[in-house]
């Protein structure tokens, strides 16, 4: 059996121009000299949106979006999946950057977690979208992280496809500035062909329901985008971190208690991304003018299991069991995010492995 990708889970009025001042700001990508537009007294800059500072302006898709949207506490983002492993860390990154986070919460435990973070809570369930109208009132952006990956096949259609379409429709009606959808590289198939790119076909008929439903969810979003919604799609690979991660700390514990995954070959190669790097990608997807209506493979690098799973197994004293098949090299093309948006990672694979090996060597 081949390696599975499942769960890889932006003055024509004759007015004198506003004065422009510059300041140097420190960002994750180094120090950047940014223009600062100060509207003349008595009128607001024509490119300014309430609650948002604009650093240089560009007009995209009928919306005024600056070179980078530098949010203040009035800039609101509606986040789904904000209490899950991935959505929680992405929403935290936005809140730390000054965004006002409004999070969808389904269970009492999720409501409590959202309130503990100081975020605005919207109680509701993507599987029952009739309760969602009004949830996006006042939101300028949407970050859609939620997805279903359980045993109920009907739920895949309801959450990953129908709810994505409903949420996109609501975003269009609410005139949000941009909708960012966290999809998955598994939308290209449970068994990835080699050198997958953003233009590779989607696996809408894949027998694995997670893969096919995420592919169909992207098509549902594309239907709404064709009617005017500005949307960006990110397709991450294995999302890894040393905390709150299926492919990080939880992977260490699975190998510790269950041993080597029986269907995994040490020579398998799969796309990898750190959760904090995905958060940086999401921030760029939300704010960068060049991201408008684009799709990106959200991947830092292609990783062989011999440099990922094998060292963890050895640190745990677990034998590596090689299945009776050749390794599958499911590599994807990496670089569009960097070339188009200037993305740079904040966490490396090597330092992440150091953290995971430390977990593996710690007493269980």
What are the salient characteristics of this protein?
364 residues; alpha/beta; Rossmann fold; seven-stranded parallel beta sheet; 16 strands
Report a brief summary of the structure.
This protein is α/β, with parallel strands linked by helices. The protein is 30% helix and 21% strand. The strands form five sheets. The protein has a seven-stranded parallel beta sheet, with helices on both faces. A three-stranded mixed beta sheet has the order 13-14-16. Strands 1-2 form a two-stranded antiparallel sheet.
Detail the topology: elements first, then pairings.
Layout: E1 20-27, E2 30-37, E3 52-54, E4 57-60, E5 63-66, E6 69-71, E7 76-80, H1 85-96, E8 100-105, H2 108-116, E9 120-123, E10 141-144, H3 153-174, E11 178-182, H4 209-225, E12 231-236, E13 238-240, H5 249-258, E14 269-274, H6 275-287, E15 295-298, E16 301-304, H7 309-316, H8 336-341, H9 349-361
Helix pairs in contact: 1-6, 3-4, 5-9, 7-9
